[in-house]
TrEMBL record:
A Pfam family it matches: FtsJ
Active site residues of this protein: 190
E.C. no: 2.1.1.166
Tree of life domain: Bacteria
Annotated keywords: Cytoplasm, Methyltransferase, rRNA processing, S-adenosyl-L-methionine, Transferase
Entry protein name: Ribosomal RNA large subunit methyltransferase E
Cell compartments where the protein resides: Cytoplasm
Amino acid sequence: MTEKRGSSGRGQRDLKVRVKSAKGRRLSSTLWLERQLNDPYVKRAKAEGYRGRAAFKILELDDRFRFLVPGARVVDLGCAPGGWCQVAVARVNALGEKKGKAVGRVLGVDLQEVEPVPGAEIHQLDFLDDGADDKVKDWLGGKADVVMSDMAAASSGHKQTDHLRIVALCEAAAELAFDVLEVGGTFVAKVLAGGAEGALQTILKQRFDKVANVKPPASRSDSSEKFVVATGFRG
Ligand SMILES: C[S@@+](CC[C@H](N)C(=O)[O-])C[C@H]1O[C@@H](n2cnc3c(N)ncnc32)[C@H](O)[C@@H]1O
């Protein structure tokens, strides 16, 4: 990985790859493949050793809001395949590679099994299970400076259902954040624009000094995904 702070916004100009339709492959799969092959973030993720293009979303959010500082204790909800964990490990100095800087900690959870990320502690867990937040609190064993969630339920194909599911995931993540965040801490979560996120915004505004809604450049423009970044937890 060749991560540098502030290095997340480089542009890249390349010739477009065209994918021919093939017998047995649906048009949607051909278009998906073509988009992947032409996506500069997919290429950069491969070149820079990240497990997915999602890594650039947290890099861009952190370049702007600066919450992944050396020494920070981070909880990453919905962390598979591990791109956000990779970024967090490097930026909070979880491996102690930045000599003379504080050493941070990264705890990730996901429904799916995750290939180990050096420097991160990862557990397989459905965060919506009863008692899941208590398990995370036990593993954490104290306070966190950052709670971040990129959780997304598998698409049902029904936009409104998907929206309500992601709001539920986001609210569960916020509940954990209210319990474990250190005063001054940061909460970052993926939401889908679509109307039902208003209640969450109201609660966050009561508990944090600032609440921003951001669509980082790495988030595809044709997706309704955006990120809420709440900073300055009031306790
Ligand atoms: C977009 S991916 C996360 C990508 C990750 N940030 C990265 O950089 O590699 C969303 C993840 O949320 C996880 N997820 C969805 N619902 C979950 C739940 N109830 N509990 C835990 N993880 C969940 C999914 O398994 C999926 O791996």
